[in-house]
Write a structure and sequence with these properties.
It is globular, with a radius of gyration of 26 Å. It has a six-stranded mixed β-sheet, with helices on both faces. A three-stranded mixed β-sheet has the order 2-1-11. Strands 6-7-8 form a three-stranded antiparallel β-sheet, with no helix packed on it. The protein is of the alpha/beta class. Helix 4 packs antiparallel against helix 5. A hairpin with a 2-residue loop joins strand 1 and strand 2. The chain contains 19 helices and twelve strands. Helix content is 45%, strand content 11%.
Amino acid sequence: MLASFFCTPSAPMSLSSGSAADEFEPSDIVTQFRENQEKAKQLFNALRDIPPHGYEAWKIQFGKAFELHNFIWKFQQKHRTLLTERGGLKRWEIGEIASKIAQLYYQYYLRCSDTEFLNEAFIFYSSARLRNYYKNVENEPTSVLMIKKLRFYTRFLVVILLLGKFQMLQDVMKELFHFVAQFSSIYSEESQEEWALVCSELQTFYQKFSLVKIIAANPHPGAPHVEPKLRLTPDYIPASLDDHIPRRLHIGRVLIVGNAADQVKFNDLSMDMYRMMMCFEIEQDSRDRPSKLIVDKTMTDERRNASSRAMNPPKHLLYYPSAQLLLSYLGNSFKELQENSVLVVYLTGEGVPGNDDEDLAFGCGGVSTNRRQSHPITNHNGVVKPGRKSYVKEAKCIYPGDFYPFTRKPLFLIVDSSNSMPFLSVPHVFGEPYMALVSPQSLPTALEESMENAGGLFTLFFSNPVFAICKICGLEDISEKSNTACNVIIKSFYHEAAKFIHRNKNVDVGIQSFFGDVYLRLLILKFLLCSYTLRLHRSFKNWTMWPRCHPEFPPDLLDNLVLEKMVRDVSIELDVQTLFNDSVRV
């Protein structure tokens, strides 16, 4: 049982165990079920009161909730007829238990990033949908059960999105839209607009995600396009040469922060956050999964440690957090880091210009947080004279100086913003490795308009480099054959670039240390691919349109004929070679 992985109390008394179950009266069985059902509800709700950071307290509470939900699920299966006839058990109540178990699996996936639990959440949601547990709830006099049904579908759609089952997504979307229309026609409530907004957000999110379509070589009826792979696969990651790594680091925590204004989102998950979280998850081979996923399977520490596949690092998803909340997460994540662990922070948002170039910590500006509303920065008299430096900073903003205390341990920063450059100046005075990958400050106007609200180009390069290259070349679709060919070339780019980094003695020791982690290794290589591509493309005319990093790569690694040729090979495969220069600009 999953709960055995946690420090949990003994299981609730089971009336269904052994032959003694027959000695109990039907009323006792009904009473026991209802009591445990209510207790399970309380334990589930109590999880919301525990701060998302701070794993140990959450783990104990989660174990209690999961164990009890597991018990009542099996209990109602064994006594379904009696509970229905004598206890008034409704089909929607069975659906609610299945939904709660799916939510618990989903919550655990968010904590540990193991896609196996996301798949188990999908199985429970899918089974509840196929069994139609919420059938005819629209006939109830109040909207309570109908809202439960709509929430069930919304949560299910989030799981489908994260698994990349886009064909199924369209089918379930249609069902949700139908039920929302049904809800609006039957019940007169203020929440009608809220549910209409949910449908609109979901539809827009799906449309914006499909920036480039892969045309199937042998299309199936109703499925002319190939679903893109969201997560990493082990064969896509170049091997690390351990002899060349001075200090082997691994990711301890990942913070993914989405502050981009007006970017499409669904369920507090912006497009950039959605794309970036996949960069820290390796897809488990279906052959490694159990043939039958059930609620009470055992998962022990020994099994996790014995697994040969990489364990996806735990991450926190923060959508429009306040500066105070983000700093709180940074502090708690920093506290939980173990020896040789790296804190990774991905930050996207609107750039806030600086007002004092001499102050590298706070004067050069930063990235806005929490839907910052612009207002003039004034002195005590309410006026700032033109040309005069102001020592008053915007409070709703994250600055390079905010990260200074956290450089006491290895820190890896990715910033996608129009004011990303100041984060290159974060000093690592404590001698611990620090690396920052920052986006271009500007993009060609036509490209910026075509990607409006659809996420950042820099982030897209980390998520799907082929799509990013297609986008800067104005391509809206690509054949399945060309997509495969481009990925083969890009995979070769990664392997060659990795060799050059290993062999080059001038590569900073911090970069070499980060290179020991499989996820950071691929992020660094994708950054190099982005750098070469944009510096070769004719539309990206100057350094403000190119990505930067700190520490910098040696010049001979940024101007390498082998890597340059591979990027041009991709352009030839896409038949857009005329959009690229003959040589890379440095």
